[in-house]
């Protein structure tokens, strides 16, 4: 510590971040599927069901994604990453605006591709928020002397009448408030541009009224007003330049966890169609009536392929465009390191057309308000572009890719759903799902049977149900278990929310057969609701039977990898080894105290070796530092046996828990 002699306040920097290891979140899920709207093949984080609806829309007949995400949040999930997929045929609905010279100017487009944008109508209205009078006698071609400059700024688009029925347009290049001047040509040569033009041809005996020109864009869905965007300017120099205010959604940052989504998702964006060489920048836009309907939006679902679900490996020689094209669906989620659960329910899609809704009864409009457009009686809520039904070979290809990604990254776990025929064809019984299970042997995946039956929001108020894969419910329950207890607790024997029934009833005998083959069953218990009653992986290795064991080891390995990066390039001496030993031991001790590790004492639950024995001089000379960690994860009790026997004139009752074995 420094010695201080003079009284006063001194600043010292102290690094209080000691070497430590902290548990990581394991409750974050990643979903890949089809949605009504939203960016394509870009992972986006959502924190609630309402936020998903805002960015990706509601349930659709051509996808299970929205159902699965709602089930995830209903069952306790708090954060998920969503990747919306579509084929390369997907296109964005748009409406092109021209100026008064019939030249292309702006393209108003839906914020994301899909047929949803075809229902949007736009209205463009020119407004004049600021007005002032000009004195031609005290003006020059470079500036105008006005009565007031309030409201004018650099980049303001100004309408100037020079003759009855004839007006010209200029851009304000600079404002001199004390002199009451609006400059058309910047007095500073460094601030001049091609858009600045002198003003000539004014009648010296007139007093023209100068008006600012800005635009209001109204967005309607049928007869319902969705959004109003006011004060948009045609000129790029203005801070409210239309294509800048209503810009497309930005690309994700290098670390997607830093992506902050807007609180209110935009409905549309504006793209500039013109270039200075093609058009007079001062020409105002032509008015667009309320009936201007966006068109050309295509969902791109009927041409969907397996490639759109899983993407392709990226080659080092690929340019950026090729990389973006290959990074589709599941491949886009590979970059999100915080994803711990993986689900792709839409590969099992059985598309359905939603019902045709009857038009609402007409309302009597208020004569004092602007008249809305007439209701579109022919407008119905349907999915004209439905995806195909995928074969078992395609389903296996996608699920195999999920398992491969989990095995490669080793930080996530795949939740697999049994194919549709396995859960809906009564002629096959459980033979189909047992045969499907034999396709996999991995500790990084679990197979769930049967499907869930939920109330379908598309058919309300007729209250019809729909059968959906259960991976969304399972992911939500796993997340809730991780938050409440920890990843070491088996995600089973808990009641599921937001489902009415299961597609297949499972009795005790059938459940035993499926459990022996590591198929996790959802069952209905009288008085206890619908529950997950299985927690096994698809591994044949006895060490990796249970889901919680595999996920606990993955969390520990990832936490150690991230938290021990500080040791790289540190001196390979006893100080560094002692710090690592202390940090890892403290971390494992916390897990043992929470019940994640077995053993009556810490020494029987884990060990950490990082000393001279496993780091001899030969190892240190190679630039290596070895830490050996051994743990005994807690294994769940699958079978609890109550032994009831008579001893003399009393009954003796004992309970025996047998993990991983039959009684």
CA radius of gyration: 33 Å
Query: Mean of residue pLDDT?
Result: 88
Multimerization state: single chain
Q: Please report the distance between the alpha carbons of the first and last residues.
A: 65 Å
Strand order of the largest sheet: 2-3-1-18-19-20-24-25
Strand coverage percent: 15-25%
How many alpha or pi helices? 15
CATH topology of the largest domain: Rossmann fold
Helical content stands at 10-25%
Tally of extended strands? 29
- Poorly predicted parts: 375-383
State the domain count: 4
Describe the structure.
- By secondary structure, the chain is α+β, with helices and mostly antiparallel strands.
- The protein is built from 15 helices and 29 strands.
- It has an eight-stranded mixed beta sheet with strand order 2-3-1-18-19-20-24-25, with helices on both faces. It has a seven-stranded antiparallel beta sheet with strand order 10-9-13-7-8-12-11, with no helix packed on it. Strands 15-14-6-17 form a four-stranded antiparallel beta sheet, with no helix packed on it.
- A hairpin with a 4-residue loop joins β11 and β12.
- α1 packs antiparallel against α2 and α2 runs parallel beside α10.
- The longest helix is centred in the C-terminal third of the chain and has 20 residues.
- The radius of gyration is 33 Å and the shape is globular.
